[in-house]
Amino acid sequence: MQTKEFLLSGWVFLGFLLLLQCKSEMDNALDTAMKSASKGATIITGNIRNRDVYPNSKYIRILVPQLSVQGGALKLESPINKDGTFSFVIDLVRPQEVAIVNHVDFLYLLPGDSIHVELDFKRLSVAKLSGGKSADLSRDFHNYFNFLRYEDYHIGTQALIDLSWDEIRKILDKKRRYNRENRQTFLLKNKVGEEVVFLSEAMIELEYYSALVNITNGRKNIYHKEIMNEQKLINEVQEAAVKYFSKGLYSKAHFSFISAAYETAARLVYPLGDDTPYSDWAKKVAKTDTIRNFLVAKRAGYALLKKNLNEFETLSAHITHEYLLDRLINEYMIVRANMLNPENISASILRKPTDFANNITVNNNPVAQTVDINKGNVIVINIWANWCRPCHDVLLQFKPLVEEFAGKKVYFSFLCFSGLEQKAVDSFHKTGLDESSNHFCTPDEAQYLFKTFSPFGLPYGILVNRQGVVVDYGFHLRPGELLKEKINLLLEQDRLINSDR
Q1: Last residue of a domain, which of 286, 308, 338?
Q2: Strands across the sheet with 460-464, in order?
Q3: C-alpha distances in angstroms, 199 versus 174, 253, 294, 302?
Q4: Do residues 290 and 245 lie in contact, with contact meaning Cβ atoms separated by under 8 Å?
Q5: What are the percentages of helix, strand and coil residues in the chain, rounded to 5?
Q6: Which residues contact 416 (CB under 8 A, 6 or more apart)?
């Protein structure tokens, strides 16, 4: 998802070495998963024309859809060589969608295949593809998306809440018919691979049901308005899932559908109790073993996002789908490597400028300034904005946490993304928190935050140990038992993981 990983070149390899080192100590589920991963290497090569347009760009980045966050993705990096060439080797067990940041929104890769990508820094969104079947399929997808480029492909959910439910269904159904007709027109004019035929249909249908479920959930839990019959909704969602999770062909739409639609719809009909193991609940609600695997993998991915390796290992014992194991084990290796060596990622967050914003310095890096001034303490940084409704709730929840750690070597810092606006000043005053702990960001500082954590979402947390090293970051760092456990652990040691795990 849903963006926030800072991967340096070679981390996957480092993680692989670390995983081998501790393999004898890992449980049987992870050992089995490791053996099933890495079935087929796909090679991506490329070169860049007009590199002098962005001479400070040092890396090409690829996004691999993940289940750790809604709409999130794992970032892989390749250095750009002096001659403008770059390369990736990605291990796959199933066909895989990826994106090249700023250049190619959709590449479809096949295991054991190769693809060559020609990029032009003068025309960032233009790419020439050549190579094996991966190149042929990717060109087909490019033609399809270009055909729809000036059409409103996405089904929006805004401005629908206040309508009657019948009106909402009519709008969504009309939009889906429109997308289906455009797709059919394209298919009649173009001969494409069967993968394109299947996935282009799946994208339309899965996005339709994601919109349907999101509106239903919002109307019920936020606006308390009339909703469609919940059993009818889950039946429709189940039918779509069984159909489009049946061929081993997946795109980002499948990942977001599981997070945004399938689980949400299932919870409306089958609530998940606090004492119910998630794997048991998933087995109950999933119509097929593939869907069950996706649900459990999504939960395991979220455990990695929280850097909760114990929860990940428990969940991984119930994942048997090789495609998902491959994705999750790669992410596990990277997360564990970063937890053992947080200095790498910390340096990237605190000091490294972004490729397209090289005017950023430590002086307009409010995170680095906060860390430098308060080194010697465990530092909890919360980034918020006055226009962010959830931010206000989280700020209020911080006060008892601040009071609990008063007198200990813990410093709480708040960075307001809104800037020095009177409404923001008044909002923070109402929290009862020490106003000296809040900093209203300048436009340059706000630019740093946006570039570093883009795509930005609020509230956002950063956790720093007493040595001034960032050890965790993300949406999950909010007041609660998990954050308290991490703070207490950092008061005892400098990492969130023991080296003997």
Answers
A1: 338
A2: 438-440, 410-416, 378-384, 460-464, 470-474
A3: 21, 9, 17, 26
A4: yes
A5: 50, 15, 35
A6: 384, 385, 386, 424, 428, 438, 439, 440, 441
The pLDDT averaged over each successive group of 10 residues in the chain (501 residues) is 33 34 37 45 93 89 68 75 92 85 90 94 90 94 82 54 84 92 95 94 95 88 82 95 93 88 93 90 95 93 86 93 81 84 79 46 78 94 89 93 96 88 89 93 84 70 94 89 93 84 54
CA distances from 75 to 65, 100, 330, 374, 484 (A): 9, 10, 11, 31, 29
The token pair at 223 is 């606006």
Both tokens assigned to 94: 């199933």
**CATH number of the domain residue 380 falls in:** 3.40.30.10
268 in the same domain as 199: yes
- The CATH number of the domain holding residue 298 is 1.20.58
Domain-located, residue 313: yes
Contact 301, 326 (CB under 8 A): no
DSSP 354-369: BTTBTT--GGG-HHHH
For residue 293, give Cα distances in angstroms to 35, 172, 261, 322: 17, 29, 16, 10
Is pTM beyond 0.85 here? no
Same domain, 111 and 173: no
* Token duo for residue 284: 């109950």
In the three-class reduction of DSSP (H, G, I as helix; E, B as strand; rest coil), residue 398 is classed as helix
CB 62, CB 101: distance < 8 Å: yes
Residues of the domain holding 278: 165-338
